[in-house]
Amino acid sequence: MGKITTQDYNFIRDLIYKETRINLGDSKRELVSARLGKRLRANSLGSYTEYCKLLQSNPNSGELYHLIDAISTNHTFFFREINHFNFLNSHILPEFSQGRFGSTNELKIWSCACSTGEEPYSLAIALEEYLGHQPCSDWKIQCSDISNRVLDFASKGIYDRDRLKNVKAEWLKRYFQKGEKQMDGYFRVRPEISRKLSFQRLNLFAPKYPWYEKFHVIFCRNVMIYFDRETQQELVSRLSQFLVPGGYLLIGHAESLAGINHPYQSIKPAIYQLPG
Asked: Whole domain around residue 57: which residue ranges?
């Protein structure tokens, strides 16, 4: 197989940027090489040059999606960055219950890079805990990601015990079904919860989104760290079009909107609100 050449790496890097706006620097060369090794073997190819030729000769083939799946980073876990969930419980949900977002009785949240589902299912637990006993309140979560592979995993809602280590025992019992026999050690999200989540593949930079509704909260966490400043600016501006007035944008704690022109008010680190 050999090492990936500079020419081949530059081709892959430029293609990934064009399709996803993920900015791969020179430091990612070994990582890209390692992740693409499986794609070479899957296509019975002997070199990265052959793989690049495959992508060039079949630009509309499914291999492009496999490439994006291979390059995308999907590190996540239940209740990651717990401060966001604390803020959800202490501020956003009380505001919703008090009619801060108008007369609607359905809270709408968008997890725009949902990965393998831990984020939106964590949100589902938090929402059900707070709103589940309020007869006039409901919720739904729109989940999207650019990777078909992680969306397929997330939509199943099945996790092993290790992935659920941050989920309280009482929540595990309340919101998950314990597997038996060949599924021993695995837990599935209960259908009364999972039916309120919708999963759909989405490139955040596609010309159009498949929905026009606006959300009360958008979780866009640990996404912008992979983009250059120009791309961050474009994304932040676009997301504001899908928030209701007074809605919240939550980003990763390693991220900031400093230096970006945006319409939001900074509420707390990594928490922003659209005026209204």
From this structure: 6-71
Q: For position 110, which CATH number holds?
A: 3.40.50.150
| 254 and 122 in a common domain | yes
The verdict on 169 and 212 lying in the same domain is yes
d(CA 239, CA 236): 5
User: Is 41 among the catalytic positions?
Assistant: no
- Phi/psi at 204 (5° precision): -60, -15
Dihedral angle at the C-alpha atoms of 70, 256, 238, 203, nearest 10 degrees? 0
Please tell me whether residues 65 and 101 are part of one structural domain: no
Residues 109 and 175 in one domain: yes
Domain membership of residue 189 (yes or no) is: yes
User: What's this model's pTM, rounded to 2 decimal places?
Assistant: 0.92
Q: In 172-211, which positions are buried (b, 16+ CB within 10 angstroms) versus exposed (e)?
A: beebbeebeeeeeebbebeeebbebbebeebebeeeebee
* 78 vs 83: CA distance, rounded Å: 13
- Let me know if 161 is a catalytic residue: no
Q: Which of 35, 149, 174, 201 is catalytic?
A: 35
Take residue 123 and report the two structure tokens written for it: 């949100």
Q: What is the pLDDT along the chain (276 residues), one digit of tens a residue?
A: 678 999 999 999 999 999 999 999 888 899 999 999 999 999 999 999 999 999 998 777 789 999 999 998 778 999 999 999 999 999 999 999 988 888 788 999 999 999 999 999 999 999 999 988 776 679 999 999 999 999 999 999 999 999 999 999 999 999 999 988 888 889 999 999 999 999 999 999 999 999 889 999 999 999 999 999 999 999 999 999 999 999 999 999 999 999 999 999 999 999 999 998
Residue 211 backbone dihedrals phi, psi, to 5 degrees: -145, 160
Give yes or no: residues 183 and 220 share one domain.
yes
| From 13, 21, 39, 145, the catalytic residue | 145
